[in-house]
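Input structure tokens:
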């Protein structure tokens, strides 16, 4: 038995990604076998389709850090054939073969049942990026969201788009930072009440404290922009740091933490315990307006992936790429 997959092979320093027929015997021996229906393109997938950036453990490799599909066979009582499941995290698509294949075999612990009310396609329209946006919003809630507008950086990207829609659905005023002015209408349709051009936050920190402007922040960009935003937070407000699309260095001053009691909260979606994953997925299914989720979707096939992987690393993808793996 064989199945179709996007396989990344490495020769010397060169990697090459191509769609191939793979024998089922190459999957791990133990685990739950899932007929993958949909996967997505996340920033890490872009890295894993290229030279790997230290993420991929061994080649040949199947990327795809998330997927949704139907259980075909199971070595665990929690899942039986026919069950619909979702996977995010656990280094699947990095250290283990992932969702860019019509079949995946993974540990039962890594799966969650498809949340009620979502199709497998909708679950992947949310995907790792949306799941992470929910974790970020929950972290802000846990630390007390302040009154002012909530800032979302990297807003037209995957995490940003879902964060904007979620916060708006919660009745919050949302300010969306984007470097793409042509995405302003898209962001307003998702619920942003204010568009902040990226260049407004591009200057490096000159004064460690500026006017208090934001009641919370979901930051997908990091780097100099995050450093700047820290000095603009309301007293006692929190920033949920999700990503580093704008760089890994943080040229910040300690002053916002000392004089404004700002909290910098780290968000990790990879190693979330089962209960947290189920709670976040349930809230996503209940809160996120499905028509807004649909407006974020860029449909794709396995064949489209190498180009989309390169695009996401350049910040050129809008919203969520949903890959129809079943074909
Ligand atoms: P996307 O590429 O979809 O979105 C990133 C957005 O950041 C872009 O769309 C762009 O938004 C903005 N951006 C890109 N480059 C720059 C730059 N040089 N300077 C300023 N802004 C920039 O990626 P995702 O939303 O999927 O992921 C965002 C980050 O979050 C990534 O670093 C990713 O690795 C990380 N991540 C972390 C997770 C975790 O568990 N902590 C889970 C998922 C993702 P615009 O055009 O609107 O300005």
């Amino acid at each position: 038995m064989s199945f179709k997959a996007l396989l990344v092979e490495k020769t010397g320093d060169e990697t090459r990604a191509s769609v191939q027929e793979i024998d089922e015997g190459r999957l791990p021996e133990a685990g739950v076998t899932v007929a993958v229906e949909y996967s997505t393109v996340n920033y890490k997938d872009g890295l894993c389709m290229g030279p790997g950036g230290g993420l991929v453990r061994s080649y040949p490799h199947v990327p795809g850090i998330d997927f949704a599909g139907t259980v075909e066979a199971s070595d665990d009582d929690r899942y039986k054939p026919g069950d619909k499941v979702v996977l995010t995290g656990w280094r699947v698509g990095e250290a283990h073969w992932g969702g860019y294949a019509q079949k995946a075999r993974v540990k039962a612990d890594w799966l969650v049942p498809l949340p009620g009310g979502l199709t497998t396609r909708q679950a992947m329209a949310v995907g790792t990026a949306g799941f992470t946006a929910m974790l970020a919003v929950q972290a802000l809630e846990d630390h007390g969201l302040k009154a002012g507008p909530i800032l979302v950086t990297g807003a037209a990207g995957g995490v940003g788009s879902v964060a904007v829609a979620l916060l708006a659905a919660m009745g919050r005023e949302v300010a969306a930072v984007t470097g793409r002015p042509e995405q302003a209408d898209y962001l307003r349709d998702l619920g942003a009440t204010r568009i902040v051009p990226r260049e407004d936050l591009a200057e490096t920190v000159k004064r460690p404290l500026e006017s208090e402007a934001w009641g919370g922040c979901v930051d997908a960009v990091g780097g100099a922009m995050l450093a700047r935003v820290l000095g603009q937070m309301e007293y006692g407000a929190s920033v949920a740091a999700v990503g580093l699309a704008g760089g890994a260095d943080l040229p910040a001053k300690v002053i916002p933490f000392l004089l404004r009691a700002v909290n910098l909260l780290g968000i990790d979606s990879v190693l979330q315990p089962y209960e947290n994953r189920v709670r976040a997925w349930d809230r996503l299914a209940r809160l996120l307006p499905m028509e807004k989720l649909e407006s974020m979707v860029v449909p794709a096939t396995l064949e489209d992936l190498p180009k989309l992987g390169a695009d996401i690393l350049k910040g050129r993808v809008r919203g969520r790429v949903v890959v129809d793996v079943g074909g």
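Residues 120-142 form the longest helix (23 residues). The chain is about 30% helix and 25% strand.
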